[in-house]
Design goal:
The complex is a heterotetramer of chains A (507), B (102), C (620) and D (508). Chain B has 102 residues and is mainly alpha-helical. Helices cover 76% and strands 0% of the residues of chain B. Chain B has one domain: Orthogonal Bundle (Helix Hairpins), CATH 1.10.287.3510. Chain B is elongated and about 55 Å long. In chain B, 37% of the residues are buried. Among the domains of chain C are: 225 residues, no CATH class; 52 residues, no CATH class. Chain C is built from 27 helices and two strands. Chain C has a two-stranded antiparallel sheet. In chain C, strand 1 and strand 2 form a beta hairpin. The chains are: A mainly alpha (507), B mainly alpha (102), C mainly alpha (620), D mainly alpha (508). Chains C and D meet through strand 1, helix 5, helix 6, helix 25 and helix 26 of C and helix 12, helix 14, helix 16, helix 17 and helix 18 of D.
Chain lengths: 507, 102, 620, 508
């Protein structure tokens, strides 16, 4: 009667092969841990981490293209499923983690001692994200989610041990710890309710409630949604976001903003795609109001923000709201199930996540390039005249901000375009209105930052910490590839769109 | 054999969960906050146990084990941070953590 | 031969371009030569066109230079048209224009902006010629606006004085009001008749519209609006006296001889249309009558030599309108021509006076100047006689014809005639008031100055004197133009006018001159004693202010307009958008308060969120 | 192919101009000028193509089609007809003029300036030639960014406010257009089974009556903002008064025309029924724009703000002519676009020149410049009287035709709009009076700052001369221009049942 009875629990060799990215990551973690134990050489442990992340990314890509050509998906125990969808997210999470590792390398360069463990934590968090993105079972999801969260506490609090002035970091970690635990508990409570009603912990079967689900299922789903909404920093569960972003070191905030969001969103997508949750009136209405609330509140909060990290945090609230708009545009069939084949909504969501990841990486990358663990350059005033002090960096940051604002030539435009398109298809006029209003307000604060960069400062002070070119070479290269990525997404999205369509179908 | 109706278990779990939430919200001492968190997590664990007994299979109990682990890990990290906090502020009052705002 | 019609405006235009582009580099003599010479050439061209025209059978001539505009069914050409009416106009414009240009070469010789003056004058003549030879209303409108622009530029010629600039703008904007009405008229004519070509338009109108039809009335009213603006008739007459701020030759050419009579030309040109709207035609007559009387009264009270002449111009154009209104088309055009002669003469004479007396305008600071300024005196004498319609001067014939035309109108004809005669009486008074005050009596200042004169200035005066005296014997070749409308033809009606009426028309101006003599020369009556009467004083100040039209318009239009323009400097629409900004900032301020940094509040918000969501689930 | 290379020349020219700054700071302006001249050459080829070939709504003189995002039915589809060519010619001419006006004015970061200038032009060319609606929207948005930079970097004292306002206004209404556009595409996919953004395809879409009007309004909002029309105009005075001269020239001369172009090319053909319903409102907006902004213009003391408001007023005639939707009205709108492009650009150049010389835009501090700078005064006079609609100059032809077209559909609208002409004479002459006439401050010894006021130099005279000749040409032989657009406009008017609908709507 339950799906878990059908799916074999044993793991075969091919299953292990399918889990190669996970395994690669795990091996790297162990290896790096050993390395650190043997001798602390920051460069080497960082390099090994990067290699590990890179390897798993490559593996994921290889598998992805393999799956693309023979159109397979593999269920590995009830916990995980390796299909185009999860491979895609594994790949981009690994890529994101890779670049974050590169940014972190130069950022923590000047930390007095114990730089190495950050990379380890990052690997762990990445593994958590990868696990979450590929799980089809609540236990798998729990493991992934918590692995990521636990590592993130450490990452956020990372400078605490060596800096006297890192109170912000401590506060940030603490807030995230407590709130995240509350949210996890909420989500788990919801899962529990669902479990008592259906007897299932798998995502795939749990959703077939029939046409008239009991109220408990609705409430359970709402609890789960609340927990995820916290992780995605959706209003009204968003209050932690700016504080945590601001307090944490730049690369950790960046990780939280990218991998932390994408992995959860991937799981949520799977959940929504396999349940007819959106056909439950209360859930649908809850998602709708959260979306509207997030878009408006996120943009309003950012309006006069003077701190770039907080600004990006607020903007991420709004962006997750846009994402929900696309999710709400899934076409729901008459029997309540979500039909992903018709309509652009799933394409919009996946593309949006990709583009959002790229542009957040770029924005945080720029910020972390001119910051270091000793001094965070996160006030907008720090960016005055960036255009004339460091033109290339300013171009990168500008294109990222424009992308966040959804201006053409950038990936952000295409993703917003797709959201618009999906919402039009679903005739979500209210949401479209909110989208227009929110984006309109949003323009103001992105432009504010850009304008600040364009101003001629009275005195050109050196940027942040002076570092040698070698130290930042990797980060710079990474920034340029990220920028190139945004532009390619914006100018020639066709290949990605085709992939995204396949990915949506595989879900 | 008469079993306890699962609704009762759920009600108890909900009560515990709410209790935990209230505790997290109102306590100022961080240690108590962590304890309240434990209560919440254990409440959710109870739900799984109830569910597992309702359906007669082990999934929920495995989940409960996971939750226990999770709670332990949270507390471990939390306590480590509390030590740092106490070093810095000489207090465990949660309200000192309000430097970041706006 | 008639292809050279296009050359008419070409010479002045070339003169304009030459002076505009190279004026700064040319010596003054050269500028004068080009400026006046181009008009002279144009006059010769005009003669060369007119001679064969008059000797032939006076058929209309058309010559299309090129298609100006062609959109869909709308077509307007750069087409030229010549008939008797045009002949009169081009001769007046080029002839009188040439004399005035010639005069200006002497008058303006010391002005620093000599070349600018001639450039604009030439442009004016070109525009005026286009106005009268245009075969369609759009091209006519081009000339119409072109002369308006030149008038603006020349009134404000001495631009450093803001007063002059104000007068210039007043002139332009006031006439623009009329022009706008005329433009609407063009829209109406085109949408109803499908063409703006004057001749076909008139034919279509007569075919399609009944007499007194609504369209005809609307169209003629709108055209009349344009005409009263340009010709300074009620209610748009107020700009002309102020327009005297420009150099005197300008006043002679633009504000007496040519441009201000464009309205008369327009109505005469469109007369078949007006005949379709008898009520409007009557309105034209009434406007003319009212204007001529009002301006006559005002002219009697002015002190400024040029303002007197300006009001007299308004008054005389009133006569022309009266003539048009009563269907005495050719009489009006005749008066237009004679008026051009004697009024140009008067203005140029006034120019000599003013220049000689170092820019003195107040006639009461002159006096007894006939010895000192003989040429000016002669000009004024002859000009005033013609103006006052002294028998057998040019003005006598033309005014006579108009008044006889007025008599022919059934019903109100006698009243119109009577008004015209009263006007003639006042004309006599004010024209000779000017002569007596300036040239007779004792000198009240400026004793030593001699007359500024030279061949360039004197020759035009002499020619104009001759024309003003004898112009009445010229026969204008407009019979063909107005033939179909000449049911009330003068030849037939003249016999019905009694000798008594003729006598009245001869005697009344003389009476006016006599009254003027008694007041201002013989000293039998004294204005100052008359002014002791409160009624007279009130009337005097009322008349002096031009019947209070300026004040009225200031109250009705200018003040509200100025208020309007000041009241919304910051654009009230913008406050709506500013409101959105304020709202957003307010929303930001409110929502930012939620980011208190307090962990317990954050938890509480999550709790609230959960409660909200779950209660949603419970209730939905 | 020419169209693509036009965009390409501006695009790469911009990049090259930026890079060339590192070689020599004087190089970028030459690079920019060269690119513009190359484009002018390309356009002259197009002109001959229009002359020789038949043109019509669907008969493009030149087109380029390439695949872009086939999965969404998006193509690189550029095409041009007579109307486009006119607009392109105006764009390139004013592009050259704006480069010239920046020649000495922009000294700082010239490379980046010309980069932005050329990219704006690239965007505008794209807007005029793109006939895939996604591509159109893409360019529509893209051209704003460099313009934003131009205002934000080289603008005057209040540039942050102005640039942001400009950007947000156009972006937000752009998004409204996007929603409408997507509706249209969606209904195309419902009716024809596939996505397509192709103009020719979308023309066939038949929208349900219930949403037709709303979808049309999305397009209208975007175009009316760019045009601009009351009540969407308030970004314009700020943007104009703060932008550097070249920016103002481009804004007034070219960017505003994209709005009108959009209305002609897209809004009305795509939504004939809704347009017919909406036309009375649009014409009312036009009339209000004409009068209201003329009125507000009078109240201004900032000369650039004043000219900006007059621009809105003049663009009201364009709107009026377009919504009259007959040949006369449309031709009038097109002529007004061309003529206003030149006259407003020239006036902004003059205002910019004044500001460059005396460092103020406040007319209360100006007086009697005729004596000091007679050439400038004459040039200003010429363009002022052009603006007030003197026959013989281009503006008159445009406004006359637009009004004539409007008169045949709505007499009240045309009659009230004509009053705008009176206002135009008031404000145009007021500017002349307060800036160039009156007593010279220098002569009265009141002011020393104006001593630096130099008259126009040869380079400036040349460009003003070109524009003057252009306006005279338009005024005296407009047939040259009318012939370009007549084919297109005839087809537009014929192809729609709009004309019939109009008659019906107005007769109610």
């Amino acid at each position: 009667m339950s799906a878990s009875d059908v799916i074999p629990v044993a793991i075969s060799g091919s299953d292990l092969l399918a889990l190669a990215p996970h395994i690669a990551l795990s091996v790297t973690i162990v290896f790096v841990m050993l390395l650190i134990g043997i001798k602390r050489i920051y460069a080497i442990s960082s390099a090994v981490s990067m290699v590990g992340l890179g390897t798993s990314a490559v593996l994921a890509f290889v598998q992805f293209y393999g799956a693309l050509s023979n159109d397979t998906s593999q269920q590995i125990t009830p916990l995980f499923r390796i299909d185009l969808f999860s491979l895609f997210f594994i790949a981009i999470i690994c890529c994101a983690a890779f670049s974050l590792s590169v940014f972190a390398y130069s950022y923590f360069m000047r930390l007095k001692d114990d730089q190495d463990e950050y990379q380890l934590l990052l690997l762990l968090a990445a593994l958590g994200g990868v696990t979450l993105a590929s799980s089809t079972h609540f236990i798998g999801a729990l493991i992934g989610l918590e692995m990521m969260s636990m590592a993130l506490y450490g990452m956020l609090a990372y400078p605490v041990h060596s800096h006297e002035n890192s109170g912000g970091s401590l506060e940030s970690a603490f807030k995230y710890l407590i709130l995240s635990a509350v949210a996890s508990a909420t989500m788990l409570f919801g899962i529990g309710l669902l479990y008592t009603e259906t007897g299932l912990l798998t995502v795939i079967g749990v959703g077939e409630f029939g046409s008239d689900p009991s109220a408990l299922i609705g409430i359970g789903l709402l609890f789960i949604f609340a927990g995820m909404a916290f992780k995605l920093s959706l209003a009204p569960f968003h209050l932690w976001t700016p504080d945590v972003y601001e307090g944490g070191p730049m690369p950790a905030s960046a990780f939280l903003a990218t991998v932390g969001k994408i992995a959860v969103a991937a799981f949520m997508l799977r959940l929504i795609a396999h349940t007819n949750a959106l056909s439950i009136v209360s859930v649908n209405f809850a998602v709708l109001s959260v979306a509207i609330f997030s878009v408006l509140l996120g943009n309003l909060l950012a309006l006069r923000q003077q701190n770039l990290k907080r600004l990006l945090a607020y903007s991420s609230i709004a962006h997750m709201g846009y994402l929900l708009i696309a999710i709400l545009s899934f076409s729901v069939e008459s029997d309540g199930s979500v039909s992903l084949g018709t309509g652009l909504a799933i394409d919009a969501v996946v593309f949006y996540l990709l583009a959002y990841m790229v542009m957040s990486l770029g924005a945080f990358g720029c910020a972390s390039l001119i910051s270091s663990s000793e001094r965070e350059s996160d006030s907008i005033a720090d960016y005055t005249g960036l255009f004339w002090r460091s033109p290339w960096l300013a171009v990168v940051l500008t294109s990222m901000l424009l992308s966040l604002a959804g201006i053409p030539l950038t990936g952000g435009f295409i993703s917003k375009f797709l959201v618009f398109f999906a919402a039009v298809e679903a005739s979500q006029w209210l949401l479209l209105f909110v989208l227009v209003v929110g984006s309109g307000i949003g323009l103001y604060y992105y432009l504010r930052v850009i304008f600040q960069m364009l101003q001629t400062p009275s005195k050109l002070e050196p940027l942040g910490i002076k570092r040698s070119n070698w130290e930042t070479l990797g980060a710079v290269l990474m920034l340029f590839s990220v920028t190139a990525g945004t532009l390619v997404l914006g100018v020639y999205p066709e290949p990605i769109l085709n992939l995204v369509e396949q990915i949506g179908l595989s879900l | 054999m008469d079993t306890i109706p699962f609704e009762h278990g759920l009600l108890l779990a909900s009560a515990l969960f709410a209790l935990g939430l209230v505790g997290v919200t109102t306590r100022r001492n961080i240690v108590f906050v962590l304890m309240s968190l434990e209560i919440m997590l254990n409440a959710t664990g109870l739900v799984f146990v109830v569910g597992s007994s309702k359906w007669g299979h082990a999934d929920g109990q495995i989940m409960f084990l996971m939750i226990l682990t999770l709670a332990a890990a949270e507390v471990a990290v939390g306590l480590a941070l509390i030590i740092q906090l106490y070093r810095r502020f000489k207090t465990v009052d949660i309200d000192v953590l309000s430097q970041l705002k706006g | 031969m008639f292809e050279s019609l296009g050359l008419l405006p070409t010479f002045p235009l070339l003169g304009f371009l030459t002076l505009f582009l190279a004026g700064g580099f040319l010596p003054r003599r050269m500028i004068g030569l080009i400026g006046a010479g181009s008009i002279g050439l144009s006059f010769l061209v005009a003669l060369s066109i007119v001679m064969p025209f008059l000797s032939g059978d006076s058929e209309e001539v058309r010559h299309v230079v090129y298609t100006w505009l062609s959109v869909g069914n709308f077509e307007s050409t750069f087409g030229l048209y010549l008939d008797g009416l045009t002949v009169v106009m081009i001769l007046v414009i080029t002839g009188v224009g040439f004399l005035i240009h010639l005069y200006s070469t002497g008058f303006m010789i010391d002005d620093p902006s000599f070349s600018r003056f001639f450039a604009i004058m030439n442009l004016f003549v070109a525009s005026m010629l286009i106005l009268v030879i245009a075969d369609n209303l759009l091209l006519l409108y081009l000339g119409w606006e072109g002369v308006g622009l030149c008038s603006y530029l020349l009134i404000g010629f001495w631009y450093t004085d803001p007063e002059n600039g104000y007068a210039a703008r007043k002139a332009f904007v006031t006439t623009r009001v009329g022009d706008t009405s005329m433009a609407i008229g063009l829209f109406l004519l085109f949408t109803q008749l499908g063409t703006l070509d004057i001749q076909s338009l008139l034919v279509f109108a007569q075919d399609r519209w009944d007499i007194g039809s609504g369209f005809a009335i609307a169209a003629t009213l709108l055209l009349l609006g344009g005409a009263v603006g340009k010709s300074a008739q009620l209610p748009l007459q107020t700009w002309l006296p102020d327009a005297m701020a420009g150099p005197t030759p300008i006043s002679a050419l633009i504000h007496a001889a040519t441009m201000v009579t464009a309205g008369v030309y327009l109505i005469a040109r469109m007369h078949p249309l007006f005949e379709l709207a008898p009520n409007v035609q009557l309105l034209v007559a009434l406007i003319g009558l009212a204007t001529l009387l009002i301006a006559g009264f005002t002219a009697m009270t002015q002190h400024d030599i040029k303002r007197i002449l300006a009001y007299s111009t308004i008054s005389q154009i009133g006569y022309m309108f009266l003539g048009l209104g009563v269907g005495a088309w050719s009489a009006s055009i005749f008066h237009l021509m004679t008026h051009a002669f004697f009024k140009a003469l008067l203005f140029l004479g006034a120019g000599t006076v003013i220049l000689s007396l170092h820019h003195e305008h107040d006639i009461f600071k002159m006096g007894g100047k006939w010895r000192q300024l003989p040429v000016a005196f002669a000009s004024f004498m002859i000009g005033s006689l013609a103006l006052a319609a002294f028998p057998f001067t040019s003005g006598y014939f033309s005014k006579d014809e108009i008044l006889i035309g007025a008599l022919a109108v059934e019903g109100v004809g006698l009243w119109l005639w009577l008004g015209g005669v009263v006007g003639a009486f006042f004309t006599g008074i004010y024209s000779f008031r000017l002569v007596f005050v300036v040239f007779f009596g004792e000198s009240r200042g400026h004793h030593d100055e001699g007359e500024v004169t030279g061949l360039a200035m004197a020759l035009p005066l002499f020619v104009l004197m001759v024309l003003a005296l004898l112009g009445g014997f010229i026969h204008i070749p407009v019979d063909n133009v107005f033939s179909h409308g000449a049911a009330l033809g003068a030849a037939h009606e003249e016999h019905s006018v009694s000798t008594f009426m003729h006598a009245v028309m001869i005697v009344v101006p003389l009476l006016g001159i006599g009254v003027s003599y008694l007041f201002y020369c013989a000293g039998v009556f004294s204005v100052s004693s008359l002014m002791k009467l409160p009624l007279a004083k009130t009337l005097h100040s009322f008349w002096y202010s031009g019947w209070g039209f300026d004040c009225l318009y200031k109250l009705l239009f200018i003040s509200p307009f100025l208020w309007l323009s000041k009241v919304n400097r910051r654009d009230v629409v913008d406050t709506f958008y500013a409101g959105i900004v304020v709202l957003s900032v307010f929303g930001n301020a409110v929502s930012v308060r939620s980011q208190s940094g307090l962990l317990r509040w954050y938890i509480l918000s999550i709790v609230i969120g959960i409660v909200l969501l779950v209660s949603l689930g419970a209730f939905l | 192919m020419i169209l693509l290379s036009l965009v390409g020349v501006f695009f790469f020219g911009g990049l090259l101009a930026w890079l060339s700054e590192f070689v020599d700071v004087r190089l970028p302006r030459w690079v920019a000028m060269l690119s513009a001249v190359i484009c002018a050459g390309l356009i002259s080829r197009l002109v001959f193509m229009v002359d020789s070939g038949g043109v019509g709504l669907l008969g493009w003189v030149d087109e380029f089609e390439g695949s872009w995002i086939p999965s969404l039915g998006i193509d690189f589809f550029f095409a041009a007809d007579g109307l486009t060519v006119l607009m392109l010619a105006l764009t390139v001419l004013l592009g050259i003029v704006s480069i010239a006006s920046a020649w000495d004015e922009i000294k700082e970061r010239a490379g980046f300036f010309y980069f932005n200038l050329l990219w704006t032009l690239a965007g505008v060319v794209g807007v005029f030639t793109a006939l895939d609606l996604f591509l159109f929207f893409f360019f529509w948005e893209v051209m704003l960014i460099p313009m934003y930079f131009i205002i934000a970097i080289w603008g005057h004292e209040n540039r942050r406010y102005a640039a942001t306002k400009f950007f947000i206004f156009t972006q937000v209404t752009g998004m409204m257009m996007l929603v409408s556009l997507l509706c249209l595409v969606y209904f195309h996919s419902l009716q024809f089974g596939e996505f397509s953004f192709n103009y020719n395809d979308l023309l066939r879409v038949d929208l349900p009556k219930s949403i037709d009007l709303w979808v049309m309004l999305g397009f209208f909002a975007a175009f009316a903002t760019k045009l601009p029309s009351v009540p969407f105009h308030s970004w314009l005075p700020d943007a104009h008064s703060q932008a550097p001269t070249a920016g103002s020239v481009l804004l007034a001369g070219v960017l505003l025309k994209t709005g009108a172009y959009g209305l002609i090319r897209f809004t009305i053909p795509l939504f004939p029924q809704a347009t017919a319903l909406f036309a009375p409102i649009a014409m009312s907006l036009a009339v209000i724009s004409i009068l209201y902004c003329a009125k507000v213009a009078l109240a201004q003391t900032d000369i650039k703000r004043l000219i900006a408001y007059t621009s809105v007023s003049h663009m009201g005639f364009v709107l009026l002519g377009i919504y009259a939707w007959n040949e006369l009205g449309l031709q009038g709108a097109v002529m007004t676009m061309l003529a206003h492009g030149l006259s407003a650009a020239a006036l902004f150049m003059l205002a910019g020149g004044l500001q460059h010389r005396i460092h103020t835009r406040d007319m209360r501090e100006m007086s009697g410049f005729w004596i000091v700078a007679p050439k400038m005064a004459v040039v200003a006079l010429f363009f002022s009287v052009a603006a007030l609609g003197l026959p013989g100059l281009g503006n008159f032809v445009g406004e006359f035709l637009a009004l004539l077209g409007a008169f045949s559909v709505s007499i009240p609208a045309a009659v009230i709009a004509v009053l705008g002409v009176i206002f135009a004479s008031v404000y145009s002459l007021w500017v002349m009076q307060s800036v160039f006439q009156g007593p010279s401050l220098r002569q009265e010894g009141k002011d020393s700052t104006h001593e630096a006021l130099l008259d126009l130099d040869r380079r400036e005279l040349f460009f003003y001369g070109v524009m003057m000749i252009g306006l005279l040409w338009m005024g005296l032989y407009p047939q040259t221009f009318l012939d370009f657009s007549s084919g297109v406009i005839e087809d537009l008017v014929m192809s729609d049942d709009a004309a019939a609908l109009y008659a019906r709507e107005f007769s109610k």
